[in-house]
Design brief:
Length: 225
Amino acid sequence: MVMSPAWLAPSILSADFARLGEEVDAVCAAGADLIHFDVMDNHYVPNLTIGPSVCAALHKHGVKVPIDVHLMVSPVDRIVPDFAAAGATYISFHPEATGHIDRTIALIREHGCRPGLVFNPATPLNYLDYTLELIDLVLIMSVNPGFGGQQFIPTSLRKLRDARARIDAGGRAVRLEVDGGIKVDNIRAAAQAGADTFVAGSAIFDSGDYAATMREMRRAITSSS
């Protein structure tokens, strides 16, 4: 298994929205590698969060790291160009949320962004049989999407191992991201299972010291090798 450098991606779903720019500046200063956007539409998932205008505002604000957009919306294609124009680097979507997976991947690429596929806890990885060579990121949900602060689902570790095996067999540089319930006390297990990109919301934003929490996470990741 050849691992990419570990990336931490604080999810702004858990940030203080009254001072979002400051919060993003703080986690970037604390060592964030990505800023993760959880985009929910109250249709594909039972919650409503943020749209392209927030992404554009933060991009204009001067976010110094790539913006990682996770679309929990249906349909997908209509909003892809808006997030691309708003400054997204990665745009990931759920295969069940689009009528034509290959077309949506191509649309994301055409708009200058890096496409990813997202897998819910019970969604099989079979979608990767014909798409892995077309994408730059695989995101494994370790909770059911819709709300922050949920508990990590242990069977996600097996899914991460299976996804890592597929990525390694494919021979391309594809990030393997995990999202949901990631904390200091379980990030090591996720890293051992093959993840190289870790989304964490409440574990970071609810802590008293963003930098200290992310340092602890990096130490745990490093100890997994």
